[in-house]
Amino acid sequence: QVQLVESGGGLVQIGGSLRLSCAASGNFFRIDAMRWYRQALGKQRELVAAITLGGATNYADSVKGRFTISRDNAKNTVYLQMNSLKPEDTAVYYCNAADSRRWIPNYWGQGTQVTVSS
């Protein structure tokens, strides 16, 4: 059993910042790529940012220059630093992690709400 536990969501004003964390625990061999997705009300889930085991990153165009994904491999934890937040960033943010055993489906966190208000 593997768990991804997210934290750091909340209510923030336009232009503010939040830092999300997601820690993996349980029975896995190694966590490879880690990703953050988000799903706004009435919309499809979308990929926000991803980071490989080696630290290579990529971002959705909508968050480039504002969000930074990072990870601590020793802690099996991924972070998402979100700056200059906009109302359109409001969504439930989900952590996703790939087990190095590729035949195992990716793990998902329970989600954390981020609300950007004016």
Can you describe this structure?
The chain is mainly beta and 118 residues long. It contains no helices and eleven strands. It is globular and about 45 Å long. The model has no long low-confidence stretch (mean pLDDT 95).
Blueprint of the fold:
Blueprint: E1 2-7, E2 10-13, E3 18-26, E4 31-39, E5 46-51, E6 57-59, E7 67-72, E8 77-82, E9 91-99, E10 107-108, E11 112-117
Parallel strand pairs: 2-11
Antiparallel strand pairs: 1-3, 3-8, 4-5, 4-9, 5-6, 7-8, 9-10, 9-11
Question: Keyphrases for this structure?
Answer:
118 residues; mainly beta; seven-stranded mixed beta sheet; four-stranded antiparallel beta sheet; globular
Low-confidence stretches: none
- The amount of helix comes to under 10%
N→C terminal distance = 40 Å
Rg calc: 14 Å
In one word, what is the shape?
globular
Give the amount of beta strand, in percent. Answer: over 45%
The description of the largest β-sheet is: 7 strands, mixed
Q: Helix count, per DSSP?
A: 0
Could you provide a short overview of the structure?
The chain is mostly beta strands.
